[in-house]
Amino acid sequence: MTDSENPPLSDADFARVDEMPDELFYSTPRLVTHIDESACAALSAHYAKTLRTGDRILDLMSSYVSHLPKSLAPKRVIGHGMNATELEANRQLDEYFLQNLNKTPVLPLEDASFNACLIAVSVQYLVNPAAVFNEIGRILRPGGRVTVSFSNRMFPTKAVAIWRTTSDTGHGRLVADYFNNAQCFEDVTIADISPSPGRTDPLFIVTAHKG
Ligand SMILES: C[S@@+](CC[C@H](N)C(=O)[O-])C[C@H]1O[C@@H](n2cnc3c(N)ncnc32)[C@H](O)[C@@H]1O
To answer: Is the CB of 90 under 6 A from ligand 1?
Structure first.
């Protein structure tokens, strides 16, 4: 368990340069990856170690790739995001839904109905992470696993102030706080899984499971 070293956060920490509705920013499909090929491969390799055949997986804040290893045979993969064209193009999703989590953090999903939840390179865009992490705790089965990944790239106008002004190490601690504050997660762990530091995009993960 990582102990929080961050002071309490204020509304100003979750301010953004662009406070226009997120639907506007995400209305143009971006059929691209947001980290380089090596970092994508490192994330898939991590998923290969932690996801299991038969899992019901929620890919929250998804787009046109979910980074799932080809060898994995999940029972069902439900995607969530902001742009229908991106999610339609994602061949790893069985179904998807659109929802602005900054307006409506409550997920339209049943309690204890997933084995795993993934948030890939997107957590910096949440203005109410406490509500979203509580919801992740609600929809996971006991023992359900979460992987939040991030690199050092972002859409700066849409990332919250605390993210824009914090280092990679600070980002890890911040996400660990999101888990710890939800009070339903165990084994909160921060790891650097950068494939080749200095030569590729860095990649960090914060993982936990539901107690
Ligand atoms: C950098 S992309 C990452 C997409 C994907 N997870 C990946 O690995 O390529 C950021 C994603 O965050 C999600 N996102 C941003 N703002 C959001 C919001 N207000 N509500 C829900 N999702 C949001 C969208 O799905 C968007 O595609």
So the answer is: no
* Close Cβ partners of 201 (under 8 Å, ≥ 6 residues apart): 35, 36, 38, 39, 151, 152, 153, 194
Query: What's the predicted TM-score (pTM) here?
Result: 0.96
> Residue 3's pLDDT is what?
46
Q: How far is the CA of 197 from the centre of ligand 1 (A)?
A: 25
Could you read off the pLDDT of 59-112 as tens digits, one per residue? 999 999 999 999 999 999 999 999 999 999 999 999 999 999 999 999 999 999
Pocket test for ligand 1, best of 33, 40, 63 (most atoms within 8 A of CB): 63
Asked if residue 43 has its Cβ within 6 Å of ligand 1, the reply is: no
CA 163 to the chain's CA centroid: 14
* 11-210: in CATH 3.20.20.150: no
